[in-house]
Design goal:
Length: 55
C-alpha cells in the first residue's frame, strides 16, 4: 500500500520518526539503550497494548 494511502482501507495508522534510530535498533545492544531507541520501544509497546486491549 502506498504511503499516501494512510488509513484508506479503514485501518488506523500512526507514523513516528525517531532520529538516530536504525531499523534493527532492538537487536543491536549498543543502540538499545539510547534515548531514541527507548522512546521507540516504549511507543511501540504502548501502541500494541492499546490495540490489543480494545477488542
Amino acid at each position: 500500500m502506498p504511503s499516501w494511502c494512510n488509513g484508506c482501507v479503514g485501518v488506523p495508522v500512526t507514523a513516528v520518526r525517531f532520529q538516530d534510530v536504525i531499523h534493527d535498533f532492538v537487536m543491536l545492544g549498543a543502540l538499545r539503550e539510547t534515548h531514541a531507541a527507548q522512546a521507540a520501544i516504549t511507543s511501540a509497546g504502548d501502541a500494541l497494548h492499546t490495540a490489543l486491549n480494545t477488542v
